[in-house]
Amino acid sequence: AAGMFLRLLSDVRWRAANPKWRRTTCSRRSTSSTAEPHAVFLPAQAQVVICGGGIMGTSVAYHLSKMGWKDIVLLEQGRLAAGTTRFCAGIVSTARQVSIELKMADYSNKLYQQLEQETGVKTGYTKTGSISLAQTQDRLISLRRIASSLNVMGIPCEIITPKQVAQLHPLINIHDLVGAMYVPEDALVSPANVSLALATAASWNGVQIHERTSVSHVSVQKGRVTGVETDRGQIQCQYFVNCAGQWAYELGHSGEEPVNIPLHACEHFYLLTHPLKEPLASDLPTIVDPDGRIYIRNWQGGILSGGFEKNPKPLFTEGRNQLEIQNLQEDWDHFEPLLSALLRRMPDLEALQIMQLVNCPESFTPDMRCIMGESPTVRGYFVLAGMNSAGISYGGGAGKYLAEWMVNGYPSENVWPLDMKRFGTLQSSRTFLRHRVMEVMPLMCDLKVPRWDFQTGRQLRTSPLYDRLDAQGARWMEKHGFERVKYFVPPGKDLLDLDQSKTFYKPDWFDIVGSEVKCCKEAVCVIDMSSFTKFEISSTGDQALESLQYLFSNDLDVPVGHVVHTGMLNEKGGYENDCSIARLSKRSFFMISPTDQQVHCWAWLKNRLPDDSNLTMEDVTWKYTALNLIGPRAVDVLSELSYVPVTPEHFPSLFCKEMSVGYANGIRVMSITHTGEPGFMLYIPIEYALHVYNEVMNMGQKYGIRNAGYYALRSLRIEKFFAFWGQDLDAFTTPMECGREFQVKLEKGTQFVGQEALLEQKQNGVYKRFTMFILEDHDTDMDLWPWWGEPIFRNGRYVGKTTSSAYSYTLERHVCLGFVQHFDEKTGEELVVTTDFINQGEYEIDIAGQRFQAKAKLYPFSSLSTHRRRKDEVELSGYQRE
Amino acid sequence: FYLTPPQVNSILKANEYSFKVPEFDGKNVSSVLGFDSNQLPANAPIEDRRSAATCLQTRGMLLGVFDGHAGCACAQAVSERLFYYIAVSLLPHETLLEIENAVESGRALLPILQWHKHPNDYFSKEASKLYFNSLRTYWQELIDLNSGETTDVKEALINAFKRLDNDISLEAQVGDTNSFLNYLVLRVAFSGATACVAHVDGVDLHVANTGDSRAMLGVQEEDGSWSAVNLSYDHNAQNEHEVERVKMEHPKSEEKSLVKQDRLLGLLMPFRAFGDVKFKWSIELQKRVIESGPDQLNDNEYTKFIPPNYHTPPYLTAEPEVIHHKLRPQDKFLVLATDGLWETMHRQDVARIVGEYLTGVHHQQPIAVGGYKVTLGQMHGLLTERRARISSVFEDQNAATHLIRHAVGNNEFGTVDHERLSKMLSLPEELARMYRDDITIIVVQFNSHVI
């Protein structure tokens, strides 16, 4: 291996010296794969096999080997860094919307900066800075939001005027700009050489790298990876890492046990020019002009400019196609809008001579975020792919997190937004992916406003009531493929067009949701909540109870008919899931979790439940339609339909009863609403759904019943200070940190996962605290609305970020929920957060650079809790979950 | 004065017509996919006519363009009548008998043609009885003649052309008791029309041409480029064979006066035409018919005027030249057009423009920079222009309209110049004829799946 690597390194130097290496190696690649004899034999076994020698594969190898795993083989079907990695633009940009992505990019930047020193491989790292331009006020708002989050992360960043832009870059036409964001530490690299540098360091640490070796499939036994099959023989292994980029989907499906990696390639074009008469300086900032859909960087004295067009060209839908690969030609007509945008931005480039239009396919995912983590179906099968054309920016950080995941069992940060378990098999249809990526790619440049929904790949999973609700004016959003109602547009009222409704300010549905909330408070509303994940766990003996007692932190040994809110915690006491569990009988339990838990929770439980044929778990999500009856008159509607007294005396909060509603029997009714309002959840076998809905609506008429959607629910739960898993709660948040100690039964008599960590926290205190903020001087009509991810300042110092927010129609104020930390003023060290610390501070929330005073609260307004609770819950005030 | 693009479009599209051959079981088994046609007037009223019809008693489709001169009466009559004459000429003996028996016994007639007409294409109601009687006489003669042989398309076409012209001539000589009809048949006979007619039946394509309209086949070469194949010869002074023919038919003494200023007898551009009895009848016959005719005819200086050096009529014939072509897979379309188009556009350009239009813009040759020195500005200009070309394609749903847009609006670079188009279309009536002629175009698209 060492000998091969020497050749590889000399190759690198040669390539860097010869401007034509691109074409030369291309042709070599296509003809020589069989001609050159393989000098080095593949090992028969290894701990880890990584497939893919691009930036992702080499970064994973680099980080794994740094963390002490040495027995690693990296396989590349062609040459190292010869795929998308080589052709991508090499821009390292930290200006990212999602905070985990921002952290990855920041880490990558720092890693690449020292890589040349570490490895001796010239990476071409140049700190140029980047300027993101705003042609509209809305764009400037979105840049200000990013700038706020960069600043609190310690990444230098400022909002600058068009004049300052002109000073930083001589060629830019600024007449149509309203402002810009300058990130001085952003950088340029030679992507292929970064990848080779990572490979070099990895091989020094013992990683074996084999080029021209393709993986045909991964062998699986009993749900675990056992080895890989290549065109040069077999390798037995415990771990497999799929870093195959745009081929990752196909590779995932090549084995007997398919692994769904929902990504799809699109063509991506950028332009290379000859140098300017006066060659551009190599440290000239990179320009991102999202309104023009282009980016422009300096390149060998000339420029490199590409973009994300409105009409992308997806390819390889039917899998790998040699013909298509060869046909990946320049398509100037397709590039024309981007070229126009470029010349508009830099008119002086008219006379600049073209060198080449590069067509470099990139892979995109259904939600614009990358795919990382372990397969929910095959243990030991890890994936890192689908970079949505930000592979270089994420490469370092993503490789690090995945390596940590493999070595430590979980990364050092919450990566749920990137976790492949957010997807299931339902996102793996090629038609779906093709349609969705055509929407996703243009979105790279589109304005990202709050509460935005994808328009493609919709109406996949629906409730049986979908048509009924739609006919009554329902407006829909989608979660995990399931259509859910946002709100109902009353007859005769029109909302804005989709495009016009994009706003950072008060949205057009404000009054509609307000009236739904009012109805929930004063009468009764019905919300279809069928999308929630529902499992049934039962056993012949006590196995179910015993297992659940171990896996959940609350005490589940409650009388039959009780409903328990509980976290499903990891070893560190963090929430892997937050659910409601009803004890249906001594030996069976009904578990309700958030919609996007369907894959994750299933995998988590499957991997931890004992392998016992007497213990069964079934996903019954599709079997039940769930109606949430919210409001003070819910009790009247239900009792009239069932002829059973359901007043709080007979049916107190947190109970579950099977009863008949209308003609339909066997409806599971639970006295919970996920909002803190009085009411019931009805779990209805789907064939009865329409009947029960009709009965409820008919009977409810005299009580003023109406339909409501999730926006109303959201407003209700946030004003009640209810945390929501996936939004407020994650694997790094413990019940102690969000005031849910009462849902943890440390003394329940059995051990449970996370117990030790929670005990320790109970003794030592918590380092962050879930807090509710009421915005004081915020004008709902005129000011920017909070969203989530806004920095929180205490006495002028940054202490944390918000995780969700909503307008409370009851308080007539905006409410933000978020976590407060306590950093030592001198060292920055994290200190214990006490109740006093929270209560004795002046708070401000930063919305796109503007700070609003906020009042912090650790408990919800008691005046908002109206209904009677079960006795043991009363003194613990009202923390529930959504 | 300036026309906006929508105004330009509404002028260009006013007469457009498209016909798609219906599919059965999702398949079109005909060798013709369909056709687009359109016409743009320069004369007021327009003197061009067009016709298209499917033969119902035999197989095949008939398409034709007719360019009238000295009025539109002759072109109108030919456009109504000629296809019936052709269809009847093609009918087998039994069918002719059946039809005759039906007429005889007052039964419903088998339909002979299915017309594909634009709402502006009209048939003269008043003359239909007269026309029908002439046609019936023709088929009765065919029945009597019964040769027993199968009908040859080429022969049928020639016979039909000649017979119709003969009937036009006879009807004018005989006259009609109805004064309106009497005047009509005279106007038909004293005006003229050229005709270019295609008959498509499977892979057999026949083009019969009389005059200077033209049929052109669009052929796609192996490399995807387009070339044109002529399927007709112009009958005018530019055609040596035609000049030769005319000279052969008359005494040597007339050689110099026969063709003057590229015109027949110094007067007529086409060397073959329907009607135009002034070039066919003897002087005596002309004088007699005019004198006994209605006053309007007598007052018309043109009809009374006898061509100079008029010694040995007839000087003009309606007999067509027929070209037979077996369709090949590379033959993608046929363009029939009056000389208004061919005066402004080279057939090679016509082939390319229609070819690119029909195969869609995605076949537009991609641009490659290769080793050339191209600046961003140059490339931008090129792409903008290509996009403009694409957008003009998207505006047209009809190949004939697209061709007219180019014929009228093309600038020196061969791309449509909106300003020019607007100017040409907003010319006042009296000026229009000086800058352009009536244009009539039919584009027939062939079905590569069948051929």
From TrEMBL, chain A:
<comment type="function">
    <text>Decreases the sensitivity of PDP1 to magnesium ions, and this inhibition is reversed by the polyamine spermine.</text>
</comment>
<keyword id="KW-0809">Transit peptide</keyword>
<dbReference type="InterPro" id="IPR001763">
    <property type="entry name" value="Rhodanese-like_dom"/>
</dbReference>
<dbReference type="InterPro" id="IPR013977">
    <property type="entry name" value="GcvT_C"/>
</dbReference>
<dbReference type="InterPro" id="IPR036188">
    <property type="entry name" value="FAD/NAD-bd_sf"/>
</dbReference>
<dbReference type="InterPro" id="IPR029043">
    <property type="entry name" value="GcvT/YgfZ_C"/>
</dbReference>
<keyword id="KW-0496">Mitochondrion</keyword>
<feature type="domain" description="Rhodanese">
    <location>
        <begin position="48"/>
        <end position="91"/>
    </location>
</feature>
<dbReference type="InterPro" id="IPR032503">
    <property type="entry name" value="FAO_M"/>
</dbReference>
<dbReference type="Pfam" id="PF01571">
    <property type="entry name" value="GCV_T"/>
</dbReference>
<dbReference type="Pfam" id="PF08669">
    <property type="entry name" value="GCV_T_C"/>
</dbReference>
<comment type="similarity">
    <text>Belongs to the GcvT family.</text>
</comment>
<dbReference type="InterPro" id="IPR027266">
    <property type="entry name" value="TrmE/GcvT-like"/>
</dbReference>
<protein>
    <recommendedName>
        <fullName>Pyruvate dehydrogenase phosphatase regulatory subunit, mitochondrial</fullName>
    </recommendedName>
</protein>
<dbReference type="InterPro" id="IPR006222">
    <property type="entry name" value="GCVT_N"/>
</dbReference>
<dbReference type="Pfam" id="PF16350">
    <property type="entry name" value="FAO_M"/>
</dbReference>
<dbReference type="Pfam" id="PF01266">
    <property type="entry name" value="DAO"/>
</dbReference>
<comment type="subunit">
    <text>Heterodimer of a catalytic (PDP1) and a regulatory (PDPR) subunit.</text>
</comment>
<dbReference type="GO" id="GO:0005759">
    <property type="term" value="C:mitochondrial matrix"/>
</dbReference>
<dbReference type="InterPro" id="IPR006076">
    <property type="entry name" value="FAD-dep_OxRdtase"/>
</dbReference>
<dbReference type="InterPro" id="IPR028896">
    <property type="entry name" value="GcvT/YgfZ/DmdA"/>
</dbReference>
From TrEMBL, chain B:
<dbReference type="InterPro" id="IPR000222">
    <property type="entry name" value="PP2C_BS"/>
</dbReference>
<dbReference type="InterPro" id="IPR001932">
    <property type="entry name" value="PPM-type_phosphatase-like_dom"/>
</dbReference>
<dbReference type="GO" id="GO:0004741">
    <property type="term" value="F:[pyruvate dehydrogenase (acetyl-transferring)]-phosphatase activity"/>
</dbReference>
<dbReference type="InterPro" id="IPR015655">
    <property type="entry name" value="PP2C"/>
</dbReference>
<keyword id="KW-0007">Acetylation</keyword>
<dbReference type="InterPro" id="IPR036457">
    <property type="entry name" value="PPM-type-like_dom_sf"/>
</dbReference>
<feature type="domain" description="PPM-type phosphatase">
    <location>
        <begin position="32"/>
        <end position="446"/>
    </location>
</feature>
<keyword id="KW-0479">Metal-binding</keyword>
<keyword id="KW-0460">Magnesium</keyword>
<keyword id="KW-0496">Mitochondrion</keyword>
<dbReference type="GO" id="GO:0005739">
    <property type="term" value="C:mitochondrion"/>
</dbReference>
<comment type="subunit">
    <text>Heterodimer of a catalytic (PDP1) and a regulatory (PDPR) subunit.</text>
</comment>
<keyword id="KW-0904">Protein phosphatase</keyword>
<keyword id="KW-0809">Transit peptide</keyword>
<dbReference type="Pfam" id="PF00481">
    <property type="entry name" value="PP2C"/>
</dbReference>
<keyword id="KW-0378">Hydrolase</keyword>
<protein>
    <recommendedName>
        <fullName>[Pyruvate dehydrogenase [acetyl-transferring]]-phosphatase 1, mitochondrial</fullName>
        <ecNumber>3.1.3.43</ecNumber>
    </recommendedName>
</protein>
<dbReference type="GO" id="GO:0046872">
    <property type="term" value="F:metal ion binding"/>
</dbReference>
<keyword id="KW-0106">Calcium</keyword>
<comment type="function">
    <text>Mitochondrial enzyme that catalyzes the dephosphorylation and concomitant reactivation of the alpha subunit of the E1 component of the pyruvate dehydrogenase complex (PDC), thereby stimulating the conversion of pyruvate into acetyl-CoA.</text>
</comment>
<comment type="similarity">
    <text>Belongs to the PP2C family.</text>
</comment>
